[in-house]
Amino acid sequence: MAALPSLRQLVYLVALAEHLNFTRAAAACFVTQSTLSAGLKELEATLGASLVERDRQSMLMTPLGMEVVERARSLLAAAEDLAALAASSAEPMSGTLRLGAIPTIAPFLLPRILPGLRGKYPKLKLLLREDLSANLLQRLAGGQLDFALLALPYDTADMQVRQLFEDEFWLIGREDDPALKSKRASVTAPAAEKLVLLEEGHCLRQHTLAACTRADSSHPSGVEATSLLTLVQMVESGLGLALVPEMALGSGMLNGTRLLARPLTPPAPKRTIALLARRSSARQAELRVLGDFIESARKLDHYAVTTSRGRRRKA
User: Fold this and answer.
1) CA angle 275, 279, 280 (to 5 degrees)
2) Which of 11, 19, 187, 225 could form a cystine bridge with 230, CB 3.0-4.6 A?
3) What pLDDT digit, counting tens, does each position of 251-285 carry?
4) What is the pLDDT of residues 104-119, one digit of tens each?
5) DSSP 192-248
């Protein structure tokens, strides 16, 4: 049987690809630079190929090196799943669980579920990360996350997907905007032309564009929001209208503003909140328990959405 790379060597290679610097990669692996360099040389000797181009000023990954890095990430994730299988078989929902969530979910859903989750599973240690969908999927595939909360539709690659609940979009705008005069609003022209968007990378941007008939993805002002909070502030300043998830409105996002929110005419556009895991994940019990917990908490959470000043509607 041919000699095989060690997991430690693959860890060194992945760290170097991420940091593109031997000193920072060694620090990330908690080893000395000489130890990391020696491990990489052993890896190259084992594979019989050059993975890293080195000189005194810089380093680059070779094309083969980048391909090996991608496969190494998958192997390391599978190894972590193997270790998690043994740990979770003893007591599910205990130990460390790394959960990612996108910015249009994390601040609105997590505060509602975390207190109850901690109370029910006191041995569970949750490590949370908020990031864009593409980054979360990359971390999930690489074994840096156990689960991720995303909004569909989105390309989830080859992940295991547990759909949790649907989240409708509402139209928000200033009180004097004609688009909000009716009890239910529409995102056809001319309202569609006034929609302010989140910047590229946010899945909510694509969901908004899919919900309206606007041909151009740019706003007349030329500005885009970096977060939902910024989006609300831009609308309040008179830059236009916006589609906001019902989940965010239920958190009181419009409190203290002079903005109105209107549900949309049927069929109202919506997104699906989903919990994702690797198909190779050994934490199937936790995936099921966490998904059930979020669904149950959602049903009990009868929050209200502000539709007009002084009037509230149960969501």
Assistant:
1) 125
2) 225
3) 888 988 989 999 998 888 999 999 999 988 888 88
4) 999 999 999 999 999 9
5) GGGB--BPTT-HHHHHHHHHS--S--S-TT---BSSHHHHHHHHHTTS-BEEEEHHH
* 119-145 tens-digit pLDDT: 999 988 899 999 999 999 999 988 889
Which residue pairs from 48-51 have beta carbons closer than 8 angstroms and sit at least 24 positions apart in sequence?
A: 51/13
Contacts of residue 134, Cβ cutoff 8 Å, sequence gap at least 6: 201
Residue 26 has pLDDT above 70, yes or no: yes
Q: Are 168 and 267 in contact (CB under 8 A)?
A: no
Quote the Cα angle for 24-28-30, to 5°: 110
Instruction: Yes or no: say if 164 and 133 are a contact pair by the CB < 8 Å rule.
Output: no
Rounded Cα gap, residues 173 and 178, in angstroms: 9
CA atoms of 118 and 42, how far apart (whole Å): 44
Amino acid 300: pLDDT: 72
Q: What are the respective helix, strand and coil percentages of the chain, to the nearest 5?
A: 45, 25, 35
CB-based burial label for 169 (10 Å; 0-12, 13-18, 19+): buried
In sequence order, what are the beta bridge partners of 97? 126
CB 126 within 8 A of CB 97: yes
Which percentage of the chain shows pLDDT scores above 90? 47
Mean pLDDT of 215-237: 77
252: left (phi over 0), alpha (psi -120 to 50) or beta: left
Tell me, what DSSP letter sits at residue 125?
A: E
